[in-house]
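Sanity check

After download, print the first record. It should look like this:
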Amino acid sequence: MIDVLLVEDDAPSREALSMWMRDHGAEPREACDYGEGVEQIRAAVPALGILDIDLPGGSGLDLLRKVSPRDRSRFIVVSGVATQDLVIEAFRLGAYDFLTKPLEFERLDRALNEAAESQSLRTGRPSAAASDRKPHRQLIGDSEPMRTVSDRIAAFAGTEEPVLITGSTGTGKELVAQQIHVLSSRARHPLVAVNCGALPSTLVDSELFGHERGAFTGADKRRAGVFEQANGGTLFLDEVTEMPLETQVKLLRVLETSTFTRLGGSTPIDVDVRIIAATNRDPKREVARHRLRSDLYYRLAVLAISLPPLAERDGDVELLARAFLEDLVNARAEGLPTVTFADSALAALASHSWPGNVRELRNAMRRAFVLASTSGDPAPQITTEHLGLTHRSTTASPRSELTPGMSIADAERQLIELTLKHVDGDKQEAARILGVSLKTLYARLKIYRAADGKSA
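Expected structure tokens:
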């Protein structure tokens, strides 16, 4: 389990985030003020820390200063309002990311994956989240769409042209970029990844191109950007459609001239980098909406790979689930019994729609493995109960039973429960359909759990 520290004084926000973390394979520790945060950090530096800015007795930035510089990259700073000074100060102190409320859970999921990898390196034991980030891992899947993807990876790896990878969240775009890099002539040089959507617009240029000392407030020394870090290798620009338009112009120039200038500098710097970009949006639609420059799109999409959602990869779910289980079994302590699948669990896996794609499947396997391996059974099996799934024989949506005189609260609960059933328990998808925040959904479920005297 991933060790996470949540320092948040607002109890509903802290509890909702804690529940989300547990759903995604983490074991959160909680602190409600600055003093408790200091105690928790002194007890053990977490694999990932989430620090609210405004705390009783201090601030999240003050807590960040309590951490040694080498460990600060494990912390995310959170604020209701993001001023430029706050963001710059957080990154100057070495924070991993700066998020504004309401939180973007895709960015938290990425941070959890990074934390899992970091934790596995410190403990010497691989984790499921870390293992599928290693460049040598092959894509898993024998469906027709994935055979097409594998063929394109092999063909594109031998070229120097940019590649644009499209696909919904959780389909494995970064893993495809890793495979292209590993199979290319640049494999001995760095593969550097940057999430354009995770960067504040004020810091995108600095992250990409670097800056000279004094280029802006807080720039107290020269810093190399990711283009320089990836020189000779590959630069992976994830969520490229989130890049500001003015930065897109600069990126296009680098693609055309292979030169750039650091912020605050005047000397052109030559760079030899292959670009692989990715987006979970329809790039043509983003061009039409004037969020992506058409000239940049056509330059990036010289070669294109479209990743299919897991629901369209017939037969791949079982292959992936067995591979994830093998990783988990190999990472467990020696002497523990081997965990296997119950037939009903494999049927439930095959019938689930997997709106969260491979990432959802991986997280479901992590949770199920923990529940099965700690059940006390001498021959533990993963069951449908461990997965939180049921084998659906029909795709029909569940129907409500609203009756005259029913209270609004009861009707609301029925709607929430029916929606969760419809999406097979995917709380993030249910919140999206219901038009409420994930925090609100977790708060309602907590109320229902308290009323029923059982877990939601």
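If your output differs, re-run the checksum step. Summary of this record's structure: The domain at 313-387 is CATH 1.10.8.60 (Helicase, Ruva Protein; domain 3).
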